[in-house]
Amino acid sequence: MYSLVIADLEKYIHKNVGLAEYLTRLQQSGKELFMITNSPFTFMNKGMTYMLGEQWRSLFKYIVVSAKKPTFFQSNRPFRLYNETTDTLSYEKITQLESDKIYAGGNISEFAQKATFRKPGVLYFGDHIYSDLADPKREQIKALFNPNFGSMFRTFHDMSFFCRRLSRLSDIYTSRLPNLFAYTDEHTFFPKRTSLPHEINISINVPDMPLCSSKAEDTNLADSNSLDQN
């Protein structure tokens, strides 16, 4: 599959307008970017060069390829140094991650120990939240696509299963990362207030008749005669 995509990048990879500018702004504002991908370096390098240009590597402090997520988050597989010239991996023990090197494999615990960052917070950008963040021991489900299914996010009035899972595992979602370019780095997103069941407006075709009153005789909803007035 990798060779097929590389042979025709324009067909399979759509350039994300504004992506390079957004990543550059994050870097210039003091954010330290790193990339952890399941793809091999040769494939990822071709795609990133096509989308961001020859200098794309300067945007990221650390680059990890062939990470094999989601086992990356649970295994103790060591990091291996990748040699671009020979397309091979070194067996030399990695004691510290360096910003000008390419690493393969590894695990999240070792990454946290051997990578150095000025600040503790991490903002995750990902396009496959299930394999990256969801429980890797979950039952594997084949993904099916049918254009007649309608929206992926809603089933009539209710949220779809996919949308509920996405809401549980992510803070915000967007169709394109550059959409965030319109917001400052200090912007805070707040979830929209949703109505609770008892807050839903109920329309009753009885003029000026309250649903609650201190006088029970004025609002006896059990009395059918009080509602049968048209």
From TrEMBL:
InterPro entries: HAD-like_sf (IPR036412), HAD-SF_hydro_IG_5-nucl (IPR008380), HAD_sf (IPR023214). One of its GO terms (molecular function) is 5'-nucleotidase activity. Keywords: Hydrolase, Magnesium, Metal-binding. Gene3D superfamilies: HAD superfamily/HAD-like (3.40.50.1000). It comes from the Eukaryota. Belongs to the 5'(3')-deoxyribonucleotidase family. This is Uncharacterized protein. It comes from Ditylenchus dipsaci.
